[in-house]
Design brief:
Blueprint: H1 2-11, H2 15-24, H3 30-43, H4 46-55, H5 61-74, H6 77-86, H7 92-104, H8 108-117, H9 123-135, H10 140-147
């Protein structure tokens, strides 16, 4: 029940209430940690998000993806890359967030290298790469043909 409250308060951006419930929990699951981290990251409070992420006893791909996504949205690709490299289990979302972030800063070459090496691609990863070419005004059609 407490985890649901933390998640609800965090989704509504009422971080003081989310933190109060979290701090009063006798047992915290990885879901409660990630919900609070996500709430702080969504509000742009990366100091609090990072502090909690660092203290979290277990870090699953969901927690990493929250942090990577937040850094990508802030344009902090160095921090996003450090977290991505540190992840033990990357999933298609992890890879796609990095591709999107690299394209957003104009580094389509690095994005393409990641795209080419990712073990599994889906519609979102393809769209991120194609969108990155378009966003950076690169003739993506010939590059796209090379991707097939």
């Amino acid at each position: 029940m407490s985890t649901s409250l933390v998640d609800m308060y965090a989704k509504f951006g009422v971080m003081s209430c989310a933190r109060k419930v979290f701090d009063e929990m006798t047992e915290r699951s990885q879901v409660s940690w990630t919900a609070l981290i996500c709430g702080y990251a969504r509000k742009g409070d990366m100091d609090s998000a990072k502090e909690l992420f660092d203290k979290s006893p277990e870090k699953d791909s969901a927690a990493y993806n929250v942090m990577i996504d937040a850094h990508v949205k802030l344009g902090d690709m160095d921090s996003a890359r450090r977290l991505f490299d540190e992840m033990l289990e990357r999933n298609v979302l992890s890879w796609t967030n990095m591709i999107d972030g690299l394209c957003n800063i104009g580094d389509v070459g690095s994005a393409r290298l990641l795209f080419d090496t990712m073990p599994e691609k889906n519609l979102f990863s393809w769209n991120a790469m194609i969108g990155g070419y378009c966003q950076n005004k690169q003739c993506f059609l010939t590059r796209l043909l090379g991707m097939l």
